């Protein structure tokens, strides 16, 4: 059965976060809270964990996975960002937005989009998740926890544990999240003088994007 790591949403217990980090280092997939919904996460460089995460979601390699970053400086290591894109990112982060950008060589090719060479990136606004990222010391690869054949993400830790107890190693329970996926914005058109493209309207306020 998946471990249940119950942490305070604003002041998470470090010993429990260290347990989560250890599980990630061992190649496991975890469910964690975000500022939108719960998400599945794993180590960026672990192919088996990435494959498992895709199987749980029932998505293929063309589905954009997302890197959860601690701040914009970390994001810029993994994505090519020009000045115009950076200004928009700065206005909207941290927050419940996923931005699609051209990946740098720091992103393994197997996790970026196979044709476009793009990756989803976001800087979340959730204390427990940011504390986990800090202890982990690097971004985590993530995808919203939307079960196959369903349209709404899950936000109850106990339900997640019961439904996926044989597929994930642990649930980091920081209480219920918003039951809404992130707003997804494709920023790649901006690299050639175009405008950002709204892919999905979700928890992030689209007015901050000027759309």
């Amino acid at each position: 059965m998946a471990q249940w790591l119950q942490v305070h949403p604003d002041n998470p217990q470090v010993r429990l976060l260290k347990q989560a980090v250890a599980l990630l280092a061992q190649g496991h997939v975890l469910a964690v809270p975000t500022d939108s919904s719960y998400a599945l996460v794993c180590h960026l460089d672990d192919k088996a964990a990435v494959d498992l995460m895709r199987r749980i979601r029932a998505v293929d390699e063309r589905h954009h996975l997302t890197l959860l970053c601690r701040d914009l400086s970390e994001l810029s290591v993994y994505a090519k960002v020009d000045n115009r894109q950076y200004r928009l990112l700065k206005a909207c982060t941290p927050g419940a937005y996923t931005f699609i950008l051209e990946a740098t060589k720091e992103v393994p090719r197997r996790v970026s989009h196979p044709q476009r060479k793009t990756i989803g990136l976001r800087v979340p606004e959730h204390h427990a998740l940011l504390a986990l990222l800090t202890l982990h010391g690097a971004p985590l690869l993530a995808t919203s926890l939307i079960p196959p054949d369903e349209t709404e993400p899950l936000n109850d830790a106990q339900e997640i544990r019961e439904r996926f107890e044989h597929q994930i190693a642990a649930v980091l329970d920081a209480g219920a999240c918003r039951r809404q996926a992130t707003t997804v914005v494709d920023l790649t058109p901006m690299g050639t003088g175009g405008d950002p493209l709204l892919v999905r309207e979700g928890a992030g306020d689209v007015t901050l994007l000027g759309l």
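The chain has six helices and ten strands. The radius of gyration is 16 Å.
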